Every structure is written in C-alpha cells, then in structure tokens.
Amino acid sequence: MPKAKALATKDDNARVSPYSKSKSSKGSTSKSNTDKENADAKSTSKPKLSKAAAEVQAQYSDFRDIPLDEFDGEVPCYDDASVVRRKLNKLLTDKQNIPGTNKKWTQAGMSKEMEELENRMGAVECHRNSTGPSPRSLGTFLKKKGKMGGGDSPAYYWGYVLLEKLRIWEGGKKSKAREEAEKERYRVPGGRVREDPDHCFILAEEGNVPAWEPEARKHKKERMQKFEEKLAIMRAAQKK
Asked: What count of other Cβ atoms lies within 10 Å of the Cβ of residue 99?
C-alpha cells in the first residue's frame, strides 16, 4: 500500500525571501520609510506676509503697477548710488525669485525688469548712456565705487525705482538714512542730483575761483518754485 504524502505545512510553502530583512531597533524608522516628499515642506513653504505686504498685494497683482511719487515727471532718488548698488547686488547673491515668476534674479533678468519699468513709466533724461537701461549699463554701474559713482547712469535711476517698488510690495520699512533724506525733500524736492563726481567738471576764466554754491542755490530755488506751484494746484483740486 503506497505511503500517503505528508501534508505540506504553512512554513514549507512560504516563499523564501532572497534577502534577509533588516533588523531595526524598536521604535526606530529606517530612512527608506521616511516621507521624502514632505521632508522639506517646512523649508519650502512661503514666508508669511506682513500686514502691509498683504494689503499692497491685495490691491495690485503686479509689483510693477505700484505707483510712486513723482516730481517733474521723475521719481526722486533718496538713496545714493552706493546704497542702490548694494541692494541690487544682494538681490543677485540671494538668488530670490522675481515676484510673480519662478525665475531667479540675474543681471539679464534685472536689466529686463528695468527696461519694462521704463516702457511703462516713460524714459527719463540721463547724462550718460541716455539710451536707457541695458545689461551693459547695469554691469558697469555695479562695478562702480563711491557714494555717487555711476550716479549719472540709467541703471542708478531705474535700479532705485525697481527697489522702491519691491520694498513696497514686500511691506519693507524705510531705513533711518532714507527717512533723513526725505526730510530734505522740501528743500530739494527732486531728490539727489543724479551725477557722477568723476564726470563733472567746471570751466572758469583764468584768475577766477569757481564756486558751485551760487549756481546750486539758483537751481534749488527754481525747482522749489515749481514744487510750490504744483502743490498749490494739487491742494486746489482736493478742495473741489
């Protein structure tokens, strides 16, 4: 009589794993089991907007649309060229995104933004490279030294305008130096004179000592008169 086959047990039919299971200590989790997708969620989350920034961004969908105070068709520059240069370089080194895009700040991108602002707001007179902002003028301006080095460049003016719009968009506060400069607006309503000292010269007759002060006072007086006239028109319009 043939022998009956022994019934296979559960352990006999179990599939043998080609690799042994790794033993981990009780309560520990292996790296492979961690949630890699959400591991950096905290670092990639958007920073919380300040109240001022939230109000501005609720009113304007594009930072370029933020209006700035003007005098005689130009935005007064209250930061000197070295401050504008430092802030522009910080944008480039921090590798932040241009608001509303996923592009990082680069010199080419920064120059494009300045050109876009010029197209929207209108060209202004610059004593050097009056063709407007360009990658070349921006590159040259960023290499300049001194408080007003490159002050006659279009990159100084449009760089200031760009930074001012970004400051308002992000709800940033004005620096103490900026507030002090603004206190002078009633004496010099047009802001800083956009000139580079290295490009200034004075012609004088032999034997005469040139003086800048009388000419400067005359220029300030003329601008102040225009400012007062414009202010009077604005006040009259508000009363209506």
From this structure: 14
pLDDT at 183: 79
Q: SS in 3 state form for the chain?
A: CCCCCCCCCHHHHCCCCCCCCCCCCCCCCCHHHCCCCCCCHHHHCCCCCCHHHHHHHHHCCCHHHCCCCCECCECCECCCHHHHHHHHHHHHHHCCECCCCCCECCHHHHHHHHHHHHHHHCCCCCCCCCCCCCHHHHHHHHHCCCCCCCCCCHHHHHHHHHHHHHHHHCCCCCCHHHHHHHHHHHCCCCECCCCCHHHCCCCCCCCCCCCCHHHHHHHHHHHHHHHHHHHHHHHHHHHC
Structure tokens at 130: 């009056």
Structure tokens at 106: 């680069």
Whole-angstrom Cα distance, residue 149 to residue 143? 9
* 110/80 Cα distance (integer angstroms): 19
- Whole-angstrom distance, CA of residue 125 vs CA of residue 154: 8
Q: Copy the structure tokens of residue 221.
A: 């007086």
User: pLDDT band for position 49 (50/70/90)?
Assistant: confident
Q: Of the candidates 147, 137, 225, which has an alpha carbon nearest to the alpha carbon of residue 187?
A: 225
Query: What is the per-residue pLDDT across 85-136, written as a single tens digit (0 to 9) for each?
Result: 999 999 999 988 999 999 999 999 999 999 999 999 998 887 654 567 889 9
